Amino acid sequence: MRTAGHHAVDLVVQRLCTAADGPPHTVAAPAELQTLLGEPLPEEGGDLGGLLDHLAHDVLPLGIRFDHPRCFGFVPTTGNYPAVLADLLSTAHLSVPGAWLVGSGPSSIELTTLKWLKELLGLPGHWGGLFVSGGSLANLTALAAARDHQLGGDLAGARLYCSTQAHPSVARAAHLLGLGRDQLVALEPDPEQRLDPRSLAAQVDADLAAGLRPFAVVATVGTTSTGAVDPVTDLARHCRRYGLWLHLDGAHGAAFALSARGHDMREALGQADSLTFDPHKWLFQPYETGCVLVRDPELLKATFRMARHHLDTGYLHPAEARHGEVNFDDLGPQQSRGLRALKVWLSLKTFGAAAFRRAVEHGLHLSDHAAARIAAHPGLELTSTPSLAILTFRCRPTDGSADPATVDRLQQSVSDAVRATGQALVLTTRVRNRTVLRMCTINPATTPADIDATLELVLQTALAR
Protein backbone atom coordinates (compact mmCIF):
# COMPACT_ATOMS: atom_id res chain seq x y z
CA MET A 1 0.00 0.00 0.00
CA ARG A 2 2.76 2.46 0.88
CA THR A 3 4.73 1.67 -2.25
CA ALA A 4 1.73 2.23 -4.48
CA GLY A 5 0.72 5.32 -2.52
CA HIS A 6 4.16 6.90 -2.78
CA HIS A 7 4.15 6.16 -6.49
CA ALA A 8 0.72 7.76 -6.87
CA VAL A 9 1.92 10.92 -5.10
CA ASP A 10 4.95 11.03 -7.40
CA LEU A 11 2.60 10.83 -10.39
CA VAL A 12 0.42 13.62 -8.98
CA VAL A 13 3.38 15.91 -8.30
CA GLN A 14 4.80 15.23 -11.73
CA ARG A 15 1.46 16.07 -13.29
CA LEU A 16 1.06 19.32 -11.36
CA CYS A 17 4.65 20.41 -12.04
CA THR A 18 4.38 19.82 -15.80
CA ALA A 19 1.01 21.47 -16.48
CA ALA A 20 2.53 23.60 -19.23
CA ASP A 21 4.18 20.67 -21.00
CA GLY A 22 2.57 19.28 -24.12
CA PRO A 23 -0.65 20.41 -25.78
CA PRO A 24 -3.61 21.79 -23.81
CA HIS A 25 -5.93 19.34 -25.57
CA THR A 26 -5.50 15.74 -26.68
CA VAL A 27 -8.30 13.63 -28.08
CA ALA A 28 -8.50 9.99 -29.15
CA ALA A 29 -11.00 8.38 -31.47
CA PRO A 30 -13.51 5.91 -29.99
CA ALA A 31 -11.84 3.06 -31.89
CA GLU A 32 -8.47 3.90 -30.30
CA LEU A 33 -9.96 3.93 -26.84
CA GLN A 34 -11.77 0.69 -27.47
CA THR A 35 -8.41 -0.88 -28.24
CA LEU A 36 -6.88 0.74 -25.17
CA LEU A 37 -9.63 0.05 -22.63
CA GLY A 38 -12.23 -2.26 -24.15
CA GLU A 39 -10.94 -5.36 -22.41
CA PRO A 40 -12.92 -8.21 -20.83
CA LEU A 41 -13.81 -8.16 -17.14
CA PRO A 42 -10.62 -9.15 -15.25
CA GLU A 43 -11.13 -12.24 -13.13
CA GLU A 44 -7.69 -12.00 -11.52
CA GLY A 45 -5.91 -8.96 -10.14
CA GLY A 46 -2.97 -7.07 -11.59
CA ASP A 47 -0.10 -4.87 -10.48
CA LEU A 48 -1.44 -1.68 -8.86
CA GLY A 49 1.67 0.37 -9.59
CA GLY A 50 1.59 -0.57 -13.24
CA LEU A 51 -2.10 0.23 -13.46
CA LEU A 52 -1.47 3.68 -11.99
CA ASP A 53 1.19 4.28 -14.63
CA HIS A 54 -1.20 3.14 -17.35
CA LEU A 55 -3.87 5.58 -16.20
CA ALA A 56 -1.50 8.50 -15.68
CA HIS A 57 0.34 8.13 -18.98
CA ASP A 58 -2.13 6.56 -21.41
CA VAL A 59 -5.71 7.38 -20.35
CA LEU A 60 -6.21 10.41 -18.13
CA PRO A 61 -4.23 12.83 -20.37
CA LEU A 62 -6.76 12.26 -23.18
CA GLY A 63 -8.91 15.36 -22.82
CA ILE A 64 -8.62 19.05 -22.10
CA ARG A 65 -5.74 19.97 -19.82
CA PHE A 66 -7.65 22.68 -18.01
CA ASP A 67 -4.67 23.87 -15.97
CA HIS A 68 -2.48 24.43 -19.03
CA PRO A 69 -1.53 28.15 -19.13
CA ARG A 70 -2.70 28.40 -22.75
CA CYS A 71 -6.01 26.65 -22.22
CA PHE A 72 -8.61 29.38 -22.69
CA GLY A 73 -11.64 27.19 -23.43
CA PHE A 74 -14.84 27.03 -21.39
CA VAL A 75 -14.12 28.12 -17.76
CA PRO A 76 -10.86 26.34 -16.99
CA THR A 77 -9.89 25.22 -13.54
CA THR A 78 -6.46 24.54 -12.10
CA GLY A 79 -7.07 22.45 -9.00
CA ASN A 80 -4.36 22.54 -6.34
CA TYR A 81 -2.27 20.06 -4.40
CA PRO A 82 -3.87 20.46 -0.96
CA ALA A 83 -7.25 19.75 -2.59
CA VAL A 84 -5.85 16.52 -4.05
CA LEU A 85 -4.71 15.46 -0.60
CA ALA A 86 -8.10 16.45 0.84
CA ASP A 87 -9.83 14.07 -1.55
CA LEU A 88 -7.36 11.34 -0.63
CA LEU A 89 -7.97 11.69 3.10
CA SER A 90 -11.74 12.08 2.94
CA THR A 91 -12.02 9.06 0.65
CA ALA A 92 -9.87 6.95 2.97
CA HIS A 93 -12.00 7.92 5.95
CA LEU A 94 -15.26 7.27 4.06
CA SER A 95 -16.30 10.74 5.19
CA VAL A 96 -20.02 11.45 4.76
CA PRO A 97 -21.34 14.89 5.77
CA GLY A 98 -24.94 13.74 5.52
CA ALA A 99 -26.39 13.00 8.96
CA TRP A 100 -24.57 14.34 12.03
CA LEU A 101 -24.57 10.86 13.53
CA VAL A 102 -22.77 9.54 10.46
CA GLY A 103 -20.19 12.32 10.14
CA SER A 104 -20.12 15.04 12.78
CA GLY A 105 -16.49 15.97 12.00
CA PRO A 106 -17.05 16.15 8.22
CA SER A 107 -20.29 18.10 8.78
CA SER A 108 -18.43 20.61 10.96
CA ILE A 109 -15.83 21.07 8.22
CA GLU A 110 -18.62 21.85 5.78
CA LEU A 111 -20.29 24.32 8.16
CA THR A 112 -17.01 26.16 8.70
CA THR A 113 -16.21 26.25 4.99
CA LEU A 114 -19.68 27.57 4.15
CA LYS A 115 -19.14 30.32 6.72
CA TRP A 116 -15.85 31.25 5.02
CA LEU A 117 -17.46 31.30 1.58
CA LYS A 118 -20.18 33.63 2.85
CA GLU A 119 -17.49 35.92 4.21
CA LEU A 120 -15.60 35.88 0.92
CA LEU A 121 -18.78 36.74 -1.01
CA GLY A 122 -20.05 39.30 1.49
CA LEU A 123 -23.23 37.37 2.34
CA PRO A 124 -24.98 37.76 5.71
CA GLY A 125 -24.27 35.11 8.32
CA HIS A 126 -27.84 33.83 8.44
CA TRP A 127 -27.58 32.47 4.90
CA GLY A 128 -27.01 28.73 4.63
CA GLY A 129 -26.67 25.92 2.15
CA LEU A 130 -24.47 23.03 1.22
CA PHE A 131 -21.83 21.76 -1.16
CA VAL A 132 -23.03 19.97 -4.28
CA SER A 133 -21.43 18.54 -7.41
CA GLY A 134 -21.54 21.78 -9.42
CA GLY A 135 -23.67 24.54 -10.87
CA SER A 136 -26.21 22.22 -12.45
CA LEU A 137 -27.19 20.58 -9.17
CA ALA A 138 -26.96 23.91 -7.34
CA ASN A 139 -29.46 25.49 -9.74
CA LEU A 140 -31.75 22.48 -9.44
CA THR A 141 -31.58 22.52 -5.63
CA ALA A 142 -32.35 26.24 -5.34
CA LEU A 143 -35.17 26.16 -7.87
CA ALA A 144 -36.74 23.15 -6.16
CA ALA A 145 -36.96 25.20 -2.97
CA ALA A 146 -38.34 28.15 -4.95
CA ARG A 147 -40.98 25.94 -6.56
CA ASP A 148 -42.18 24.52 -3.24
CA HIS A 149 -42.11 27.84 -1.40
CA GLN A 150 -43.76 29.88 -4.14
CA LEU A 151 -46.20 27.42 -5.69
CA GLY A 152 -47.14 25.09 -2.88
CA GLY A 153 -46.95 22.00 -5.05
CA ASP A 154 -49.29 23.28 -7.78
CA LEU A 155 -47.43 23.82 -11.07
CA ALA A 156 -50.46 24.85 -13.12
CA GLY A 157 -49.75 28.10 -14.96
CA ALA A 158 -46.34 28.49 -13.31
CA ARG A 159 -43.77 30.66 -15.06
CA LEU A 160 -39.99 30.81 -14.51
CA TYR A 161 -37.96 33.56 -16.19
CA CYS A 162 -34.38 33.85 -17.44
CA SER A 163 -32.54 35.21 -20.46
CA THR A 164 -31.51 33.21 -23.51
CA GLN A 165 -27.95 33.64 -22.22
CA ALA A 166 -28.66 31.57 -19.10
CA HIS A 167 -26.85 28.27 -18.64
CA PRO A 168 -28.57 25.17 -20.10
CA SER A 169 -28.75 23.73 -16.60
CA VAL A 170 -31.55 26.20 -15.89
CA ALA A 171 -33.72 24.66 -18.60
CA ARG A 172 -32.77 21.18 -17.45
CA ALA A 173 -33.66 22.06 -13.85
CA ALA A 174 -37.05 23.35 -14.98
CA HIS A 175 -37.66 20.07 -16.80
CA LEU A 176 -36.67 17.96 -13.79
CA LEU A 177 -38.93 20.04 -11.55
CA GLY A 178 -41.93 19.19 -13.70
CA LEU A 179 -42.24 22.44 -15.64
CA GLY A 180 -43.13 22.24 -19.32
CA ARG A 181 -40.88 23.97 -21.83
CA ASP A 182 -43.48 26.71 -22.27
CA GLN A 183 -43.30 27.43 -18.54
CA LEU A 184 -39.67 28.54 -18.82
CA VAL A 185 -39.72 32.00 -20.40
CA ALA A 186 -36.32 32.78 -21.93
CA LEU A 187 -36.18 36.48 -22.83
CA GLU A 188 -33.90 38.01 -25.42
CA PRO A 189 -31.04 39.94 -23.80
CA ASP A 190 -30.23 43.62 -24.10
CA PRO A 191 -27.33 44.79 -26.33
CA GLU A 192 -24.87 43.92 -23.54
CA GLN A 193 -26.22 40.34 -23.42
CA ARG A 194 -27.96 40.90 -20.06
CA LEU A 195 -31.47 40.10 -18.87
CA ASP A 196 -33.43 43.32 -19.43
CA PRO A 197 -35.49 44.32 -16.35
CA ARG A 198 -38.00 46.23 -18.48
CA SER A 199 -38.58 43.25 -20.74
CA LEU A 200 -38.96 41.08 -17.68
CA ALA A 201 -41.52 43.40 -16.10
CA ALA A 202 -43.51 43.62 -19.33
CA GLN A 203 -43.57 39.82 -19.67
CA VAL A 204 -44.59 39.31 -16.04
CA ASP A 205 -47.39 41.87 -16.43
CA ALA A 206 -48.64 40.10 -19.55
CA ASP A 207 -48.50 36.69 -17.87
CA LEU A 208 -50.36 37.93 -14.82
CA ALA A 209 -53.02 39.45 -17.05
CA ALA A 210 -53.37 36.06 -18.74
CA GLY A 211 -54.02 34.38 -15.39
CA LEU A 212 -50.61 32.71 -15.19
CA ARG A 213 -48.45 32.34 -12.06
CA PRO A 214 -44.94 33.85 -12.24
CA PHE A 215 -42.85 32.49 -9.38
CA ALA A 216 -39.10 32.94 -9.95
CA VAL A 217 -36.41 34.69 -11.95
CA VAL A 218 -32.93 33.33 -12.70
CA ALA A 219 -30.32 36.06 -13.18
CA THR A 220 -26.84 35.17 -14.35
CA VAL A 221 -23.71 36.61 -12.78
CA GLY A 222 -21.26 35.76 -15.53
CA THR A 223 -22.82 34.20 -18.61
CA THR A 224 -20.80 31.39 -20.11
CA SER A 225 -20.42 33.01 -23.52
CA THR A 226 -19.43 36.58 -22.68
CA GLY A 227 -19.25 36.86 -18.88
CA ALA A 228 -22.17 39.32 -18.90
CA VAL A 229 -23.65 40.17 -15.50
CA ASP A 230 -27.40 40.65 -15.35
CA PRO A 231 -28.47 43.87 -13.53
CA VAL A 232 -29.13 42.20 -10.20
CA THR A 233 -30.22 45.25 -8.23
CA ASP A 234 -32.87 46.25 -10.77
CA LEU A 235 -34.05 42.66 -11.12
CA ALA A 236 -34.27 42.32 -7.33
CA ARG A 237 -36.47 45.39 -7.18
CA HIS A 238 -38.86 43.89 -9.73
CA CYS A 239 -38.86 40.56 -7.91
CA ARG A 240 -39.82 42.26 -4.67
CA ARG A 241 -42.58 44.15 -6.46
CA TYR A 242 -44.08 40.98 -7.91
CA GLY A 243 -43.27 38.66 -5.03
CA LEU A 244 -40.92 36.52 -7.13
CA TRP A 245 -37.98 34.39 -5.97
CA LEU A 246 -34.65 35.71 -7.32
CA HIS A 247 -32.03 33.05 -7.95
CA LEU A 248 -28.54 34.09 -9.03
CA ASP A 249 -26.47 31.70 -11.11
CA GLY A 250 -23.05 32.94 -10.10
CA ALA A 251 -21.26 29.67 -10.81
CA HIS A 252 -18.33 31.56 -12.33
CA GLY A 253 -18.93 35.22 -11.70
CA ALA A 254 -19.75 35.33 -7.99
CA ALA A 255 -16.02 34.97 -7.29
CA PHE A 256 -15.58 38.46 -8.76
CA ALA A 257 -16.75 39.67 -5.34
CA LEU A 258 -13.37 38.55 -3.91
CA SER A 259 -11.54 41.21 -5.92
CA ALA A 260 -11.12 44.89 -5.14
CA ARG A 261 -12.90 45.96 -8.30
CA GLY A 262 -15.73 43.51 -7.60
CA HIS A 263 -16.42 44.75 -4.09
CA ASP A 264 -19.73 46.38 -5.11
CA MET A 265 -21.02 43.00 -6.26
CA ARG A 266 -21.16 41.85 -2.65
CA GLU A 267 -24.21 44.01 -1.96
CA ALA A 268 -25.92 42.77 -5.13
CA LEU A 269 -25.41 39.11 -4.25
CA GLY A 270 -27.07 39.68 -0.89
CA GLN A 271 -30.29 40.82 -2.58
CA ALA A 272 -31.02 37.35 -3.96
CA ASP A 273 -33.02 34.54 -2.40
CA SER A 274 -30.52 31.92 -3.54
CA LEU A 275 -27.11 31.73 -5.19
CA THR A 276 -25.13 29.17 -7.16
CA PHE A 277 -21.35 29.32 -6.73
CA ASP A 278 -18.75 26.91 -8.13
CA PRO A 279 -15.42 26.86 -6.28
CA HIS A 280 -14.18 24.51 -9.03
CA LYS A 281 -14.07 27.54 -11.29
CA TRP A 282 -12.59 30.78 -9.96
CA LEU A 283 -11.56 29.32 -6.60
CA PHE A 284 -9.26 26.86 -8.36
CA GLN A 285 -10.65 23.64 -6.91
CA PRO A 286 -10.88 20.23 -8.60
CA TYR A 287 -14.18 19.40 -10.26
CA GLU A 288 -17.25 18.34 -8.30
CA THR A 289 -16.93 21.32 -5.95
CA GLY A 290 -20.12 23.35 -6.30
CA CYS A 291 -22.19 25.19 -3.74
CA VAL A 292 -25.75 26.44 -3.27
CA LEU A 293 -26.50 29.17 -0.75
CA VAL A 294 -29.92 30.50 0.27
CA ARG A 295 -31.19 33.44 2.28
CA ASP A 296 -33.45 31.17 4.37
CA PRO A 297 -31.96 27.68 4.89
CA GLU A 298 -35.24 26.50 6.40
CA LEU A 299 -36.73 26.60 2.91
CA LEU A 300 -34.21 24.01 1.77
CA LYS A 301 -35.20 21.88 4.72
CA ALA A 302 -38.88 22.25 3.86
CA THR A 303 -38.19 20.75 0.44
CA PHE A 304 -35.55 18.12 1.18
CA ARG A 305 -35.77 17.06 4.84
CA MET A 306 -35.61 13.31 5.19
CA ALA A 307 -38.66 13.13 7.46
CA ARG A 308 -40.81 14.53 4.65
CA HIS A 309 -39.80 11.70 2.33
CA HIS A 310 -39.55 8.72 4.69
CA LEU A 311 -41.18 5.54 3.52
CA ASP A 312 -39.61 3.23 6.10
CA THR A 313 -39.29 5.66 8.99
CA GLY A 314 -37.70 3.21 11.37
CA TYR A 315 -34.47 2.65 9.47
CA LEU A 316 -33.34 6.28 9.40
CA HIS A 317 -34.88 7.41 12.70
CA PRO A 318 -31.58 7.04 14.65
CA ALA A 319 -29.91 9.57 12.34
CA GLU A 320 -32.46 12.36 12.77
CA ALA A 321 -30.97 15.67 13.94
CA ARG A 322 -31.40 16.60 17.58
CA HIS A 323 -30.12 19.34 19.91
CA GLY A 324 -29.01 21.80 17.21
CA GLU A 325 -27.23 19.26 15.03
CA VAL A 326 -27.15 19.91 11.28
CA ASN A 327 -28.01 17.08 8.91
CA PHE A 328 -26.95 18.13 5.43
CA ASP A 329 -29.08 15.38 3.92
CA ASP A 330 -32.06 17.47 5.11
CA LEU A 331 -30.90 20.37 2.92
CA GLY A 332 -30.37 18.81 -0.49
CA PRO A 333 -31.15 15.86 -2.75
CA GLN A 334 -28.22 13.65 -1.72
CA GLN A 335 -28.01 11.43 1.33
CA SER A 336 -24.61 9.78 0.78
CA ARG A 337 -22.33 12.72 0.01
CA GLY A 338 -18.60 13.14 -0.43
CA LEU A 339 -16.79 15.69 1.70
CA ARG A 340 -16.39 18.26 -1.07
CA ALA A 341 -15.93 21.06 1.44
CA LEU A 342 -12.63 19.63 2.67
CA LYS A 343 -10.91 20.60 -0.58
CA VAL A 344 -11.86 24.24 -0.09
CA TRP A 345 -11.13 24.14 3.66
CA LEU A 346 -7.63 22.73 3.23
CA SER A 347 -6.86 25.07 0.32
CA LEU A 348 -7.87 28.16 2.29
CA LYS A 349 -6.00 26.97 5.39
CA THR A 350 -2.86 26.26 3.33
CA PHE A 351 -2.72 29.36 1.13
CA GLY A 352 -4.92 31.92 2.92
CA ALA A 353 -7.75 33.95 1.43
CA ALA A 354 -5.37 36.68 0.25
CA ALA A 355 -3.76 34.29 -2.24
CA PHE A 356 -7.15 33.59 -3.81
CA ARG A 357 -7.98 37.30 -3.98
CA ARG A 358 -4.67 37.92 -5.79
CA ALA A 359 -5.36 35.05 -8.19
CA VAL A 360 -8.78 36.47 -9.11
CA GLU A 361 -7.21 39.89 -9.70
CA HIS A 362 -4.55 38.27 -11.88
CA GLY A 363 -7.21 36.76 -14.12
CA LEU A 364 -8.84 40.17 -14.52
CA HIS A 365 -5.53 41.79 -15.41
CA LEU A 366 -4.88 39.11 -18.05
CA SER A 367 -8.28 39.83 -19.57
CA ASP A 368 -7.50 43.55 -19.66
CA HIS A 369 -4.19 42.78 -21.36
CA ALA A 370 -5.82 40.55 -23.97
CA ALA A 371 -8.57 43.09 -24.68
CA ALA A 372 -6.02 45.86 -25.20
CA ARG A 373 -4.01 43.71 -27.60
CA ILE A 374 -7.12 42.78 -29.59
CA ALA A 375 -8.41 46.36 -29.75
CA ALA A 376 -5.02 47.60 -30.97
CA HIS A 377 -4.64 45.09 -33.82
CA PRO A 378 -6.31 45.82 -37.18
CA GLY A 379 -6.79 42.11 -37.85
CA LEU A 380 -8.87 41.53 -34.72
CA GLU A 381 -11.97 43.07 -33.16
CA LEU A 382 -13.74 42.64 -29.84
CA THR A 383 -17.31 41.39 -30.14
CA SER A 384 -18.45 41.90 -26.55
CA THR A 385 -17.39 43.96 -23.58
CA PRO A 386 -14.80 41.95 -21.62
CA SER A 387 -16.33 40.83 -18.34
CA LEU A 388 -15.22 38.57 -15.48
CA ALA A 389 -12.03 37.56 -17.34
CA ILE A 390 -14.06 36.40 -20.38
CA LEU A 391 -13.71 38.13 -23.72
CA THR A 392 -14.93 37.39 -27.23
CA PHE A 393 -13.44 38.56 -30.48
CA ARG A 394 -13.08 37.67 -34.13
CA CYS A 395 -10.53 37.75 -36.90
CA ARG A 396 -11.21 40.07 -39.79
CA PRO A 397 -10.95 38.29 -43.18
CA THR A 398 -7.77 39.27 -44.99
CA ASP A 399 -9.72 39.75 -48.23
CA GLY A 400 -12.06 42.26 -46.58
CA SER A 401 -15.11 40.04 -46.95
CA ALA A 402 -18.12 41.12 -44.92
CA ASP A 403 -20.29 38.14 -45.76
CA PRO A 404 -21.56 36.86 -42.36
CA ALA A 405 -21.32 33.18 -43.30
CA THR A 406 -17.77 33.62 -44.58
CA VAL A 407 -16.69 35.48 -41.46
CA ASP A 408 -18.32 32.84 -39.23
CA ARG A 409 -16.54 30.02 -41.05
CA LEU A 410 -13.23 31.82 -40.63
CA GLN A 411 -13.60 31.91 -36.83
CA GLN A 412 -14.39 28.21 -36.66
CA SER A 413 -11.52 27.28 -38.96
CA VAL A 414 -9.11 29.42 -36.93
CA SER A 415 -10.22 27.76 -33.71
CA ASP A 416 -9.81 24.30 -35.24
CA ALA A 417 -6.40 25.12 -36.67
CA VAL A 418 -5.09 26.66 -33.44
CA ARG A 419 -6.20 23.60 -31.51
CA ALA A 420 -4.52 21.33 -34.07
CA THR A 421 -1.15 23.02 -33.47
CA GLY A 422 -1.18 21.80 -29.86
CA GLN A 423 0.06 25.20 -28.71
CA ALA A 424 -3.15 26.72 -27.36
CA LEU A 425 -6.86 26.09 -26.98
CA VAL A 426 -9.22 28.86 -28.12
CA LEU A 427 -12.79 27.76 -28.76
CA THR A 428 -15.80 29.49 -30.31
CA THR A 429 -19.16 30.67 -29.05
CA ARG A 430 -22.14 32.54 -30.49
CA VAL A 431 -22.74 36.22 -29.78
CA ARG A 432 -25.76 37.90 -31.39
CA ASN A 433 -26.10 34.87 -33.66
CA ARG A 434 -22.56 35.19 -34.96
CA THR A 435 -19.64 32.79 -34.46
CA VAL A 436 -16.81 34.39 -32.49
CA LEU A 437 -13.64 33.32 -30.69
CA ARG A 438 -13.66 33.25 -26.91
CA MET A 439 -11.01 33.33 -24.18
CA CYS A 440 -11.32 32.85 -20.42
CA THR A 441 -8.15 34.04 -18.67
CA ILE A 442 -8.50 32.90 -15.05
CA ASN A 443 -5.49 30.56 -14.75
CA PRO A 444 -3.03 31.97 -12.18
CA ALA A 445 -0.15 30.34 -14.08
CA THR A 446 -0.99 32.15 -17.34
CA THR A 447 1.22 35.14 -18.15
CA PRO A 448 0.83 38.11 -20.50
CA ALA A 449 3.39 36.35 -22.71
CA ASP A 450 1.01 33.40 -23.02
CA ILE A 451 -1.75 35.79 -24.09
CA ASP A 452 0.50 37.47 -26.65
CA ALA A 453 1.73 34.17 -28.08
CA THR A 454 -1.81 32.82 -28.39
CA LEU A 455 -3.15 35.92 -30.13
CA GLU A 456 -0.17 35.86 -32.50
CA LEU A 457 -0.96 32.23 -33.27
CA VAL A 458 -4.58 33.19 -33.95
CA LEU A 459 -3.46 35.93 -36.34
CA GLN A 460 -0.98 33.74 -38.20
CA THR A 461 -3.57 31.01 -38.52
CA ALA A 462 -6.12 33.46 -39.90
CA LEU A 463 -3.62 34.73 -42.46
CA ALA A 464 -3.12 31.19 -43.69
CA ARG A 465 -6.84 30.57 -44.25
From TrEMBL:
<protein>
    <submittedName>
        <fullName>Aminotransferase class V-fold PLP-dependent enzyme</fullName>
    </submittedName>
</protein>
<dbReference type="InterPro" id="IPR015422">
    <property type="entry name" value="PyrdxlP-dep_Trfase_small"/>
</dbReference>
<dbReference type="InterPro" id="IPR015421">
    <property type="entry name" value="PyrdxlP-dep_Trfase_major"/>
</dbReference>
<keyword id="KW-0210">Decarboxylase</keyword>
<dbReference type="Pfam" id="PF00282">
    <property type="entry name" value="Pyridoxal_deC"/>
</dbReference>
<dbReference type="GO" id="GO:0030170">
    <property type="term" value="F:pyridoxal phosphate binding"/>
</dbReference>
<comment type="similarity">
    <text>Belongs to the group II decarboxylase family.</text>
</comment>
<keyword id="KW-0032">Aminotransferase</keyword>
<keyword id="KW-0808">Transferase</keyword>
<dbReference type="GO" id="GO:0006520">
    <property type="term" value="P:amino acid metabolic process"/>
</dbReference>
<dbReference type="InterPro" id="IPR010977">
    <property type="entry name" value="Aromatic_deC"/>
</dbReference>
<dbReference type="GO" id="GO:0004058">
    <property type="term" value="F:aromatic-L-amino-acid decarboxylase activity"/>
</dbReference>
<keyword id="KW-0663">Pyridoxal phosphate</keyword>
<dbReference type="InterPro" id="IPR015424">
    <property type="entry name" value="PyrdxlP-dep_Trfase"/>
</dbReference>
<dbReference type="GO" id="GO:0019752">
    <property type="term" value="P:carboxylic acid metabolic process"/>
</dbReference>
<keyword id="KW-0456">Lyase</keyword>
<feature type="modified residue" description="N6-(pyridoxal phosphate)lysine">
    <location>
        <position position="281"/>
    </location>
</feature>
<dbReference type="GO" id="GO:0008483">
    <property type="term" value="F:transaminase activity"/>
</dbReference>
<dbReference type="InterPro" id="IPR002129">
    <property type="entry name" value="PyrdxlP-dep_de-COase"/>
</dbReference>
